[in-house]
Amino acid sequence: MAASPADIALPVHAEITDDELTEIGTILSMWRGINMSAYKDKCMKRRVAIRMRSTRCHDAAEYCNLLRQSPLELDLLQKALTIHVSQFFRNPSMFDKLREEVLPGIFSSCVKTGAGKLRFWCLGCAGGEEPFSLAILLKEDFSKEMRRVQTVIHGTDIDAETIRTAQQGEYVEERIKGVPASLKDRYFRRNGAGFRLVPEIREMVTFMRGDITRTKEYLTSDLVVCRNTLIYFARPDQEKILHGIADILPSGGILVLGKSETLVGDVRQRYEAVCPVERIYRRL
Ligand SMILES: C[S@@+](CC[C@H](N)C(=O)[O-])C[C@H]1O[C@@H](n2cnc3c(N)ncnc32)[C@H](O)[C@@H]1O
Prior knowledge:
Layout: H1 5-9, H2 18-32, H3 41-54, H4 60-69, H5 71-81, H6 92-113, E1 117-123, H7 129-141, H8 143-148, E2 150-157, H9 160-168, E3 170-171, H10 181-187, E4 188-191, E5 194-197, H11 199-202, E6 205-209, E7 223-225, H12 235-248, E8 254-256, E9 271-275, E10 280-283
Parallel strand pairs: 1-2, 1-7, 2-6, 7-8
Antiparallel strand pairs: 3-5, 4-5, 8-10, 9-10
Helix pairs in contact: 2-4, 3-5, 4-5
């Protein structure tokens, strides 16, 4: 395919220097409260370059000026930097593992200790597909246990708009194609061109805007799911985030990273593997 004039004028991430990326980061942090410094530079430069091409800016200085003047462009850049791809029951084998081998133990030890309450947290939850999948799984297979144990699920994401989507609980067909037909009939209602989750599932999850690099502000959780989000961060920041998560897990608490990510650095000493294939870990 022939390159458009804009492609020729701005080859991908060739023009953005580290200083310019820092300046763009400062603008985003000032106006949107997003700390870009932890994200992988190469990944950020590529996405900024795509926005520069779309807005026909010839260099980073021109793009910085546009960002200072246009709240819309700030929104579009933020969207480009935080990818919200998700799906209900994404990587179903992970949910099978939770159902069969992890959740029974979590509920039974909660009953044994008399704690009476469990908190599950999905970090980087995009439009809510992941925490709602967990809610459906719990409703289907652990209703009896939930009568004895108060169970709360939180979903947090850096992007305020994606959190608003999650709160609506409305999805296009593509996002729910992984939902088995019987569950789709039970828990989704047709709504125009898409589908809406029934209130009994929507009410099981509380959504908030939240930054994965600031888990110090989070409550202790018995299970943390953090999938397909760490990949955007540079390795030293991944380590910091994983330490932050370990700090909010009690001993015996579970971390689910999923197949794209793994424990890195000395934080490995704070966990033991429960399922190396699904990258499920227990806090020591
Ligand atoms: C690819 S989605 C993953 C969604 C879901 N966990 C899954 O696996 O299907 C990555 C999500 O991480 C969010 N994200 C990126 N940086 C973040 C940060 N610093 N704090 C919290 N969420 C962040 C993005 O906004 C995006 O919704």
